[in-house]
Design brief:
- One of its GO terms (biological process) is methylation.
- About 30% of the residues lie in helices and about 25% in strands.
- It is built from 10 helices and 11 strands.
- Strands 3-2-1-4-5-11-8 form a 7-stranded mixed sheet, sandwiched between helices. The protein has a two-stranded antiparallel ribbon with strand order 6-7. Strands 9-10 form a two-stranded antiparallel ribbon.
- Strand 1, helix 5 and strand 2 form a beta-alpha-beta unit.
- Helix 1 runs parallel beside helix 6 and helix 8 crosses helix 10.
- The protein starts with a helix and ends with a strand.
- The relative contact order is 0.16.
């Protein structure tokens, strides 16, 4: 790891270890609903259900799986799922949650950069990355090399992520581009005691290090590592209130979009790519 990422890794791990316990107790994650309803899916997976297709019998890995709601949802769609995250606290919550939800999932604690070493090369039919993951990694190329290493020939990457254009905006009204659209060596450093769901106290480990990556850098990295892009859709919504005071919640989908002309902003995207077979 680079020095800046090594520092960021430690800072972010402290932040996400603390978030994990708070998130697991949050009504927005609603752990109890999964136990009560065996067909219930996370909002992120439900949003992309038509694009995910039939997962029956596929061996899947969910990178940066956090507390496991998307991981369990993929399992409920028929995949045999492995989850990987760098936060031991998050995985403790994920294991507890999966057991309560009746899902058999193999969880591993590791930095995503070590995923091939930890899980094995070319083992998976599907690599899944949910929203809010890539910004914690400094290099799209290094991430793409991990994806390529995990996938079997003919295997598929599926990612839903916040749009890098959204990542450039500050929270002014109206928002203006303030941060780099393109990948940058040094991280963006934020100190924010809040998080994206309702929790019962502010974070003590409130500092985070993050990186933006342009769409061109992400797609080029995948192409350079032998994956062909097979699907790409931009959306005017995200599953969290990314610009407080300027977005409204669609109760039907659980997604947030600009309240004034949402077509002005590509807020997230779904990308699929297949490894050469």
């Amino acid at each position: 790891m680079t020095d800046s990422f090594a520092v960021g890794f430690a800072v972010n791990k402290a932040n996400w270890d603390e978030r994990a316990v708070l998130h697991a107790a949050s009504p927005d994650y609603d752990f109890a609903r999964y136990a009560a309803d065996p067909a219930h899916l996370s909002g992120v997976v439900r949003f992309d259900r038509p694009r995910l297709g039939d997962l029956t019998g596929l061996r899947a890995v969910h990178l940066q799986c956090h507390i496991g709601t998307d991981t369990v949802s993929l399992s409920r769609l028929g995949a045999s799922v492995t989850g990987l995250d760098f936060s031991g606290a998050a995985l403790a919550e994920a294991r507890r949650f999966a057991a309560a939800a009746g899902a058999s999932i193999d969880f591993h604690e590791a930095n995503v950069h070590d995923a091939v070493e930890v899980l094995g090369a070319e083992r998976f039919d599907l690599v899944y990355t949910g929203i809010g993951a890539l910004c914690w990694l400094p290099s799209a190329a290094r991430w793409a090399s991990v994806v390529a290493g995990l996938l079997k020939p003919g295997g598929r990457l599926f990612i839903r992520e916040g749009h890098p254009m959204l990542g450039t905006l500050d929270e002014n009204d109206p928002p203006v581009p303030r941060y780099s659209y393109f990948e940058h060596a040094e991280p963006l450093v934020f100190d924010d005691p809040g998080t994206y769901v309702t929790v019962d106290r502010p974070l003590e480990h409130s500092v985070t290090h993050s990186w933006n990556h342009s769409l061109g850098e992400i797609i080029t990295a995948l192409l350079d590592h032998g994956l062909a892009v097979t699907g790409f859709t931009e959306h005017d919504s995200v599953p969290w209130n990314a610009l407080p005071g300027q977005m409204v919640l669609d109760e039907a989908t659980g997604e947030w979009r600009l309240k004034d002309t949402p077509s002005r902003l590509a807020a997230s995207y779904t990308l699929q790519a297949v490894k050469a077979g």
